[in-house]
Structure formats: structure tokens, C-alpha cells
Amino acid sequence: MSKLSFQDGVAQWMLECFGPAIVADKTERADRFIEEALELVQSVGYPAERVMALLSYVYGRQLGEPAQEVGGTMVTLAAFCVSHGIDMDEAAKTELARVWTKIEAIRAKQAAKPTGSALPIAQPSTVVNRQEALDFLGIATRNWPDMPPLSEDDIGDVATGLSWFIAKKAELGRIEAHLRSLVISHPEKALLAALDDDTRMWFLAELITVASGTIPYIEIEAMVSRHLTPAKGGEA
Question: How many alpha carbons fall within 13 Å on the CB side of residue 84?
């Protein structure tokens, strides 16, 4: 029995981790390749301004032939590893073994990204400082006839409350993005969930596994109901 090539091993892992739809997404594969290449050169201190200069240089030239460019990429990666004293084959095998143990975490991270892209959803800062709390109060109370004087403790309470509210909103957005990805990945289950409590509970359990614990169960349950209960049609 012939031994799997490294590429075949990666293909098996991708199918197990993501499924065929994401594996076939050429744009996302390109996104991830560029992301990893940039993280590699960043790790050895390569400056960002050279990346931007090379971007303009490369995209100002004629298109290459994909198979030849893959060969060039492999040769230059090997040369890079020679220069930096890295065993390319060993690093590849180690990383493939590692990602096999991280499938659930990688799926959760994938669910927090927009469909069709490897780019993450921008997350707002969840920490509100004193000035931001004052700015918020100024906007929220601009039409009040009288604004009572606030102590430092009052302002601190507003900042803490806003921080909690923003963090909760960001967490709900992350959970909802995961639910949307589950609906896309399991359309038959999504349809059945409107009629079958066990199927609905499957979706609920999947969301609870990726939630941080700060969101009440009842709110996650309400989210599932909103997404998986079909809208009522109009009168005939």
C-alpha cells in the first residue's frame, strides 16, 4: 500500500475539518496562503513596507502560469528555510500533526469569519474609558432639561456598563455567525429544526460549545428560534 503524499494528507485533513465546499473555495485558499506567507516573513522581522512595495511590483507584471508559480513558491520556500536554518519537511509534518488535534478550535475560528473569506470579522474594543463614557452620556442626555452632576463612581459605572454591553454584543455576533455557518453547512437539519425539537437542540448544543458562558442560555435559545423558525406566509 503506497504511503500518502503530504499534499494528500493535507487534503484529507481539509475535508475532515471544513468539508468539500470550503476546500473548493479558491479565493479563501488564496487568502489563507497569503496570510500564512505574511505571518512567516513577519516572524523573522521582515518589514511591512517591503510587502507593500512588492505588491505593487508583482501586480504590475504579466500573469504567471499557476503550476510553474507553485514550483517557484516551493523552491523559494526551501531556499528561505535554508537561510533561516529551518527543516522544511519536519516543520510541515509537525504542523499537519498539530492541526489534526485542533479541528474543533479551527472550525470555531472559521465560523467567526465572513462566508467566502479567510479574513476575520473586525471586533470592536470592549473596554470603555472615562472619556468615552462621558461622550456617551453627553449624546444620550443631550435633550434632557437638566443633567445632574456625576461623581467619578457614576462615570466608572457607566464605563463598566458600556464595556459589558459592547462585549455581550460582540459575543452574540460571534455566536450568530456560527449559527449561520451551521445553517449553510446543514441545510436539511435547518429545515427540520423548525418541526423537530431534537434537531433544534442539536443546533443549540453546537452554539453553547462555542459560547464563552457570558450569554444566558435563554438568549441563545431565542437566537436559534429566530433563525430556524420559518416566517409565516401571508393570507392566500
Answer: 16
